[in-house]
Structure formats: structure tokens, C-alpha cells
Amino acid sequence: MQSWFYEIANYSESLLSPGEEISLHLKGERTGFSRISAGKIRQAGSIEQRNLELALRSSGREVRMSLMLSGDLSNDRSPLRAALDKLSRTLESLSEDPHLPPLPDSGSSESRFEGELPSKSEMIQTLAGEIPLAESCGIAMTGIMYRGMATSNAVRRWYEAPLTLIDGSMHLTQHSGAAKWTWSGRDWNPEEAQLRKDRALSSLELLSRPVDTPAAGEYRTWLEPAALRDLLGPLLWNGAFSARALAKGSSPFSALHNGRVLDSRVSIHERPLSVGAPSFGDLGFSLPDTIPLIDSGVGTGRLISPRTAMELGLETNGVNIDEQVSAMEMSTGDLSSDQTFEAVGDGLWLSHVHYCNMAAREGARVTGVTRWIALRVRDGKPVGPVGTVRIDDSVLRLLGEGLLQIGDQSEILADTHSYVSRHPKGSSLPGILVDGLRVVA
Amino acid sequence: MTPQEIQELLGRVAPRGTWCSLRIVETHNESYTVRDDALLPPRSTTDRGAMITVVSGNGQGIAATSDLSPGGLYQAARVALDWAHTASDQGVVDFSKAPRPQRSGTWSHPVEKPWEESTPKEIVDRLRSSCLSMAGDERVVQRVASLSRSCSETTLVTTDEVVIRQKHDRIIPWLQVLASDGSDVQTRTNGGRSDAQLGGLEVLDKVNFDGLGSQIREDALETLLAPICPSGIMDAVIGPAQMVLQVHESIGHALELDRILGDERNYAGTSFVKTEDLGSLRWGPGILDVVIDPGVEGEVCSTGFDDEGLEAEKVSLIDKGRLVRGIGGSLSAQRLNIEDEAIAVTRACSWNRPPIDRMANLNIEPGKTPMKDLIGGVENGIWLDVNSSWSIDDRRWKFQFGVEDARLIENGELTTRVKDAGYRSTTIPFWNSLDAVGDADTWQVRGTPNCGKGEPNQMVFVGHAMPACRFRDLEVFGREG
């Protein structure tokens, strides 16, 4: 796919009129998937797609177009030519863009990773079949993701990586409980995946115990890495670290740039390598190895897209126009992962928080509900599932005065979402122990 | 390609001895955004590809490809065949007996003012004007005026010579004001992403796009200065834009048959509704009528067929407060042994995803209560409209929603605006607290482009036509939740 993409780039550049510049961004994938319901196959198949975004610019104007191409240059020349003609005509009708950033400086990079992919049968068998007292569901996806970037000022960047993702769950047939398990990696490792699956299986006994629902109130709680990711999610897509949102005051983390601090043990940064994400953004700029966002509890950094940099007079760090993290990493602490129940003592232990949303910008208040492994803990031991309870609390408080301890191990959480396409991003987070997590219903 | 050419192509690439369908989707999107009076680079999309489904023996396999050449489709058909063989004997059903499209047809809808008849400059000028109309106060820190068009043509052909072609042209207007006084920030929009409609640029006239900007600015400033919403149990009148979200989350998703079957439980979730509830469960008072209606003019999911070829028709889901049927297509209905209850809602977001059960035009029928009586019937309560926050559990039972637009109702009159309002409840008790449904004058045809579900994930348009409704004894709260 790389040679085809570079041929596409060279051909597009050959069509430019004097004064025109172009950038091309490819999102490609070859994916196989198997979707399992109650141990049987609901849907299974393959997806192959090559989405090319062209950005044509001239005289301080830019217009963008995405094209789904075939992968065969002889078939793709015609739609490319038509697209560039249309973009060129549209450009003429536009006024000058006061915040149009320059194209990235010339440069090239290539990240090509290799790894073994599971066969179709292996994919199916990770989730299909019978489980004692439960039903297995989920999706297995495998294949190669491609990202390419080329500009008419000689940028050529390439990223190619295999990724297998097993996103599964087990649902008790005689009770309402369910446990989720995931495995992801570049190199298929069925033994590691089975260990993850077995761990989820072993939790089913706890989940089949009588539900011990906590009353509305405040609870000392261990939040697994995935639960912390869930709580942070709506804050991130509401511009938590966005330079533009911070400048406008709409970021839920604005307070962190106006004197409020988190616990000094909290350090968060954007680091593509931490989750194997590409080292360049959708606009073709090379990303720094690390972008500090919160350093020892203090809001220090921002994600500054090239456009925001132009508009606000800042220096870009090359991130995408949406200024959202794609590889968030949080520093670990010292609570051993096998001591989380003891550390809770009397309270809750949550693997996830489902369907979170920002309930109020003030305080970065987030609401969501328990799902998957959500346990009542008494005397340092899990006693049973809590059922479905609603959480509603300030994340600034949870990472500030409410933070008790941070786990000593990070978990790499690959992005399981596949809207439009698969995405080579994720987060690397530890779990946290918090005081007084607010249960409202 | 014409439908006949696609039919011939399928005949050439289909593996012998199999049943196949080929679904080609071509989508053209265009989007223009003016932010703080500066035009962002316009964006357009041409997305074209095919999904081929092969049934061999009792197995089914699919392959999606952006290579529409005969060679590309031939290769895709072999990949799908290989999947069908690998999946043999392991499917949720015997796919050789799965329902198949029966009738050919075409469907499209009227477009009064085609998008193509406006130049980019005319569209941008209109957006600039809207953006400018939201200015005029230093507390307004961000203004966004945006317009998107999504036009898709879907052709479905099968090896038993069914040919279906449909075209949908959709408009998504968007206005947003961000107001700040230095310590607080409030956002107001033109309906919280619920203003999508089927049609051309006449949609902008229908939703008064050109006249909304200054009102949204004033609303944002008023909200900024407003007191925080009081907490307590109170009666509420919920406006049509918030009813969109309310019905979507607590009726629509709860009734999807693939959730009830368990297909979605690894991702979007399941449902508190059980198969035995279909046809019997009491879901609100006798004034509640909920339908799937594919024939509402301008509603985004009006259609002739679903993506598995089932013809669309208006059906009742909740009839006078009794649950009649769920939301599911032919295959889900067959799996539940309710074949006659199948409705045309099996949809895919594009060529690269397989169809699954989705809401289409999910509507509450207008009632009989005028707006003045909805409000007049509340002594101490609140008006809630335009969604800003949404969260509900995976069984679609326990929910909490926030709104942009809230005003107190005192002695039957709308009074003080309040901010940061939210409410929470559980699905059936909430619907049982319904005591008035607004009349046709309160009923609005609305729609959203953002309904996510499925694995691999799919985002689709969903239509909701809603009246305002009144609920008794709702738990309402302000900023502290």
C-alpha cells in the first residue's frame, strides 16, 4: 500500500497548477472481524478500504476532500484528477483564510511494524463456543492499519502496523452479571489472550453472588485503568487539553490553568510511543516524543494544532485539528495491583464506568453507571456485585483532594472503537484509589 | 453504474452454488463552517464501496471493498466465500434459511432547493451572515455556523434478481454560541444536534436557520446570567428537542431486538425488555403512541426499504401505552419466531459495515394538549429542552440527562431562566409519570446524525418527530447534581 500511496502523491503533485500546494493523508486498513453472540457467529467478514484526504491550497486558502480509492492507480487516476479539478475551482471562490497554517516542513519517516495475525478460525475460536454458566460475546478484529502523509513540499511519512484486538465478554445465564475481557497486540499471542479470558471467567463466581447495592452516598473506591479512562473520556472530547478550548474557557480542565492543582502524584502526558500510535498527526506534522499536559498535579501543557497556533499566536505541537489526545499516558504510583481490595477496605471496586458524559463543566463533573465487574468490598474483600448504580462526581476532585493512591502498573488500553475505520491509538493508565466517590442513584 | 449493470456484475463475480447480495453505497458529503467569522477549510467526501454477502451451505460471510472493479469484486466475493465456509455450522442461525429480499423497487424523496444549485460562495455568505448575527457582545467568546450535506445512493442487488435503489439527501444545520463572563461558560445551540432533515436547502427555511443566530446569542447570555437550577422533585414539561434524546435513549434503544437477543451486549448493551414483554408491557398511560413511520416528509430516515430489502411501512411500537412490538428487521424477528413483526429497520451506516437493527423514524404521535395547557397545568415545575448531556445504563433503565434550555414554571407560567439543569429517572416509572402529550402545534420533525452502535461500530442518522410532553414528579437538579 505504501508504494501505491506514494505513486498517488506523485501523480497528484504532477496535476498542480503554479502556486498550488497539496497535502495527502491516507487512512487505510485490511481488517478481518468475527462478531460473536452467545458463542455463535453473528457476522464475520473482511473490510478493505483506502480513504485519502486531499488538502489543496493556494494564495492563503485551503479546501479539503476525502476520496475512497480502489488501490489500483489505473482506476484511481480519474477520480483524483476530477477531485483536484473540483478543489481548484472551489478554491477560487473562497476568501483568504486568516489562520491557515503552513504545511509541515519537509521530512520523511517510516514506521513499519510486523507481527503475526491470527487465522480466521483462531479469531472465531477466541470468542465462540460454550462457557460454563455463561455466554460468550464480543468481537475479534485483526489486520493491518496504514497511515500515510505526503505533501508537495516533500513530506513523506508512513506508518504500518498489525493489530489484533479481542474485545469480549461473558454473560451469566442465571444472573445479570457479566465480565469483560480484552486482549490487544501486534503479535498474536493466544496464550496471553487465554489468560485474560480465564481471568474474566474466574470473576463470574463473584458476579453470581447476591447483589449488594450501595445506597446513595460516598464510597472509597478502586477504579481500574479502564474505569479511569471511561471517566476521563467525556472530558477529553470536550476539550480538556485543547489549547483553543482552554483559551475560550470551555475546557473542563480550565481551572488547572487558573490556579487549581491536582494531587502532586498526578502526571499526564501525550506520548505516541506509549500505545504504538503514529509519530505524526493527520496534518503531517511530526509529533514530539512527549507533550506534558499535567505535571505533578499542575496543568502545564496544551495540545496546540497548527491552526490554533496561527490563530492564538502559539507554537504548535503538531496535533490534529480536534486537539484531543490519542496516546494519553499517566504516571504510575505505588499501590500494588494485588492489594486493591485491601486498600479499599469498605467501599467499591469498579472495572469500568459505562456511558459517561460530562454533567457539568464546572469541576469537570462526570456521570456514568457501573457495568461489567462492579463489586462491593467489605473488610478488604469483595463480597458481591453492586448491580447498576449511577456515579456522578468531579474528576478534578477525584484526581485532587479525593485521590488516595495510584496503582503501580499501567495498562495499555487500545482504542476499541471502529467508527468509520479502526484507529491506531489508545491510552496507558494505572488504576486509582479514591475517597468518597459519589453514588447518586 | 446502473442497477442493471450492478446486477450483471454480481452475476459475474458470485461464486457458483451460493446466494449472494451486493450492496453498493456512494455518499457525497460537503461541509462548510464559519467560526468567529473565519471560514474553516471546506470539506467534502466521496465515499464509494461495496459489501458483498455470500451464503454457502449454512454459513454466511461478508467482504467490503473500495475496489469496485470486476477484479476487486471478484476477489471480495472469494474472501466472503472463505468466511462463509469458515463460519459454517457456527452461526447464530442457519443462514441458508435466513430471510432474503423479495421485491425490487426504487425510492427517493422530493428536494425543493437542490444543494448543487447554490454556489459555495452563496452557502458561505449565508453562514457568515449567521455567524455575524451571533456577535455583538464581548461575553460571546465563540460563534460557530455550520452546514453539512450528506447525499447517499444505495443499490442492493441479489443473485435472485431483486434490485433496489434508494437515494437520501440530508441537511445538517448547526449554530453554536459560547458565552463566558470569566468565571462561568455556557453553550447554546440550535437544538443540540437534532436539526438534521431530509431535503435540500429548503430545510434551512423550515428551521429558520437565518433567523436563529441572534436568538441563540441572547439565550446564551441570558443563561450565563441565570441562577443555577434548583434541585428537587417537580413537574416538568419537556420540549421537542429534548424529547428527541429522551425517546431515543429510553424507548428506541430499549426496544431494539438485537439488544433483546443479546447481540449488542458486548458493546452498546442489552435491554430491560424481555421477549415476553412484546405485546403486553404497560409503557406509560393510554395517551402515549409511539410509531416507526418511514413516510414523514423531511424526516431523515424516511425510506422505501431497509438495507436488507424489507419494504418500509408505518407500524406501531407502543399503542395507547401498551408495548406492541420491538424494533427489529427480518433476521431478528425470525430468530425470535415473530416473523410477522419484522419492520424495515435493518440498516448499515455505509458499504463497509453490515446491516443491523436500528431505529429509523421513531416518533411520538401528537396528542391533544396545547402548549399553553401543558405549561398551565404546572403549579411549580420546570421547562426542559435541548439536550446537553446524556447517560443511561446498558439495560436502558436508569438515565440522567442534562439540558441547555431550562426555565421555571410557576403558577402555570414560564418564569425565571435557570442553568446547568439535569434530571434523572428510570425508564418505565418515568413514562408512567407522563400525563399530557402536546398537540400537533408542538410536534416537530427533528433528526440526528449521531447514533452509535454495533461492532464494528456504526454511526447512523435517526429521525425523531416529537411533541412537547408533561411529566409529574421528576427528580431535577442543578450544577452539583
Walk me through what this model shows:
Chain A has 441 residues and is of the alpha+beta class. Chain A is 21% helix and 41% strand. Chain A contains 9 helices and 18 strands. Chain A has helices at 2-14, 73-92, 120-127, 190-207, 225-237, 243-248, 306-312, 340-344, 395-398; strands spanning 21-37, 40-58, 61-68, 107-112, 134-151, 155-172, 178-185, 217-223, 268-270, 291-295, 298-299, 327-330, 347-360, 365-378, 381-385, 390-394, 403-414, 426-439. In chain A, strands 8, 9, 10, 11, 12, 13, 14, 15, 16, 17 and 18 form an 11-stranded mixed β-sheet that branches. In chain A, helix 1 crosses helix 2 (73-92). The model of chain A has no long low-confidence stretch (mean pLDDT 96). In chain B, the strands form 5 sheets. In chain B, strands 1, 2, 3, 4, 5, 6, 7, 8 and 9 form a 9-stranded mixed β-sheet that branches. Chain B has a 5-stranded mixed beta barrel with strand order 10-17-18-20-24. A 4-stranded antiparallel β-sheet of chain B has the order 13-12-11-16, with helices on one face. In chain B, helix 1 packs across helix 2 (70-86) and helix 3 (120-133) runs parallel beside helix 5. The radius of gyration of chain B is 24 Å and the shape is globular. At the A-B interface, strand 1, strand 2, strand 3, helix 2 and helix 3 of A face strand 2, strand 3, strand 4, helix 2 and helix 3 of B.
